[in-house]
Amino acid sequence: MAAFAQSAPCWVDVQLPDLEAGKRFYGELFGWTFRACDGPCADALSDGKLVAALAAKQDGRMPTAWGVYFATDDIVATVARIREAGGQVITDPVRAGGAGALAEAADPGGAVFGLWQAGDREGFEKRHEPGSFCWTEVHTRQKGRVDAFYEEVFGFQGTDLDTSGAGESGTGGSGVDFRTWSPAGAEPGPDTAVCGRSVITDAFPAEMPSYFLNYFAVEDCNAAAGHAVRLGGRISAPPFDIPYGRMAVLQDDQSAVFAVLQPPVSGKSAE
Q1: To pair with 17 at 20 to 30 A between CA atoms, which of 107, 161, 191, 265?
Q2: Where does the chain have alpha helices with state H?
Q3: CATH class of the region 9-118
Q4: What single DSSP character describes residue 13?
Q5: Is 220 buried (19+), middle (13-18) or exposed (0-12) by CB count in 10 A?
Q6: CA 135 vs CA 11, 96, 215, 261: distances in Å
């Protein structure tokens, strides 16, 4: 059996101007260790298990950003569905040696994501634990088109959530139109959700593009936010409580944006 459900998030990486600075930042923040991989990049490990990759940007015009990859057992067919559903294919499927095959695409709102068809490498070896990936969500202004796109391309089943009473940014923000997506064949709802969609409101600048926000689990959200600042990063959204724990939106010392989530003491993290 594959390690990841079809269309579930299975990997994240970050493109950075300075790879060594990125290793210092995330090594200190999350306790990651690193090993070299093919090209100017490094695998990140937590407790010796793969959790992410850091890569040196090869083109200064590329965004400094975290990217997420969704699992597929037929990358060619998924790319065809992306085109049919109104998305844009940025990079057609290419082999990554024996590790697998990847492609890059954008949804109708412009949010960029990747696809991964596993070979020798399935993806995360650790997730939903401190120091590892736990959630991703797309932030968009084109709710209708984007919902239809992901539900057609990946077979996601959506559940709209009541987000009243939570913070302004990220999962479950107050007044934010938020939907979770569960894989095809699963009973839709928070217990089976693998990712989500949030609407960018008029409170944000019109030039803000659509994007994926990737979350990492931490033991103490407040401490992680403070530590990021001491390492040269910034806080985009200070720690606040949501139905799934306590979160903050941060930037590293090269301006790549990510979120941290401290799950509730008893309960389930946003999976």
Answers
A1: 107
A2: 19-30, 75-84, 143-153, 221-230
A3: alpha beta
A4: E
A5: middle
A6: 11, 25, 5, 9
Distance (Å, whole) CA 249 – CA 240: 10
**pTM of the full predicted structure?**
0.92
What does DSSP assign to residue 98? T
CA 235, 238, 241: angle at the middle one, nearest 5? 145
DSSP per-residue string spanning 229-249 = HHTT-EEEEEEEEETTEEEEE
Positive or negative torsion for Cα 232, 234, 240, 243: negative
Please give the Cα distance from 109 to 86 (Å, whole number).
10
Q: Which two tokens stand for residue 64?
A: 């400094």
Split at pLDDT 50, 70, 90, the class of 166 is very low
Summarize pLDDT for 212-235 with one digit per residue, the tens: 999 999 999 999 999 999 999 999
**pLDDT score of 168:** 43
- What fold does the segment set 133-262 form as a domain? 2,3-Dihydroxybiphenyl 1,2-Dioxygenase; domain 1 (3.10.180)
Handedness of CA 269, 249, 123, 114 (dihedral sign): positive
